[in-house]
Design goal:
five-stranded parallel sheet, binds manganese (II) ion
């Protein structure tokens, strides 16, 4: 039996957070939750997760700021960090990828494709064309 991967969900919207948490728990993941970037930094440094889902728009500390701090944590070197955003405008995806996120999930969340996306990232197989282009 392998140990379940740990995922940290950082999202200020409780409805979204619970929805994502329940889907991921159903798929066997161990899930931690944070309501803003500051809480995410505390939880991630206490116990580094394998993957982080990070909302962009949050009170206290937004996702871009949290990402910069998370990327500086030695314990999170190989941790996949995926942005959650409701931005709909063209160009935002590129801005998010350039900021250093590994991927981008737009809200409302596609609950059917979420588990597969998470699994591919944990297995190191997912890579967007944009990210490839930036490397
Ligand atoms: Mn938000």
């Amino acid at each position: 039996m392998t140990m379940a991967s740990r995922i940290l969900i950082v999202e200020d919207n409780e409805t979204n957070r619970i929805l994502i948490r329940d889907i991921l728990r159903y798929h066997g993941y161990e899930v931690e939750e944070a309501e803003n970037g500051m809480e995410a930094l505390r939880k991630a440094s206490d116990r580094p997760p394998d993957l982080i889902l990070l909302d962009i728009q949050m009170p206290v500390m937004d996702g871009f700021t949290a990402l910069r701090h998370l990327r500086e944590m030695p314990g999170l070197k190989g941790t996949c960090i995926i942005a959650l955003t409701s931005f709909a405008m063209t160009g935002d995806r590129e801005m998010i990828m350039r900021a250093g996120f590994d991927d981008y999930i737009s809200k409302p969340i596609d609950t059917r494709s979420l588990p597969g996306l998470i699994r591919r990232h944990l297995e190191g197989e997912a890579m967007t064309g944009l990210k490839k282009g930036l490397r």
